[in-house]
Amino acid sequence: MNEVNIEIYTDIFKNEVAELIMRIQNDEFGIPLTLALHPDLNEISKFYQANKGNFWIARFDDRIIGTIALLDIGYNRSALRKMFVASDYRGKPYGIGQKLLDSLINWAKYKRTTEIFLGTTARFIRAQRFYEKNGFMEIPKQTLPKEFPVMDVDVKFYKCFV
After folding, report:
1. Can you give the pLDDT at residue 147?
2. Whole-number mean pLDDT of the chain?
3. Mean of the pLDDT values across residues 115-130?
4. CA distance 50 to 31
């Protein structure tokens, strides 16, 4: 396998997904999070692949190099979660982030989701520019739907109409 494949998550990838996310948050960005603080990663199928939600992985050379999730929060709205791309695969040469986001947006349209919300940390500057380039508008925290799961590390919030 020498090309990037975007696939819907299955539980056989549970440990590899958790390792990728923890490595990026802890080692690369110095955000001291543990797997215990991510109970969703222990039950990805139940947590994300319900109702209008889903979870995708990007694979290259049989390794997981990216993830993205859409969490159904009700009322035809969703939360974009767990968007991570391994550092060696970020940017234009591979386009992993764009492929993952395109898969999520296409799914959201198919499921008739009307709005997608997300939260991110101050440290993810490149991610913020990426979201803005893709039509996400920054919004005040107090305008988030009450069903949106705010993470303690999130300080910037975005919304996109689908």
Report:
1. 97
2. 93
3. 92
4. 28
SS3 107: helix
Using DSSP, state whether 87 is helix, strand or coil: helix
Task: Report d(CA 75, CA 63) in Å as an integer.
Answer: 35
Question: Residue 91: helix, strand or coil by DSSP?
Answer: coil
- 91 close to 131: Cβ distance less than 8 angstroms: no
Q: How many CB atoms lie within 10 A of CB 155?
A: 14
Q: What gap in Å lies between CA 93 and CA 42, rounded to an integer?
A: 32
Q: Is 71 helix (H, G, I), strand (E, B) or coil?
A: strand
* Residue reference for tokens 């993470």: 151
Strand, helix or coil for residue 50: coil
pLDDT at 78 over 60: yes
Distance CA 129, CA 54 (A): 24
Q: Name the token pair of 132.
A: 């803005």
Banded model confidence at residue 49, pLDDT cuts 50, 70, 90:
very high
Could you give the angle at the alpha carbon of 133 between the alpha carbons of 132 and 138, nearest 5°?
A: 10
Of the candidates 76, 85, 88, 161, the residue with the CA atom closest to the CA atom of residue 130: 85
The single residue listed with the structure tokens 């893709």 is: 134
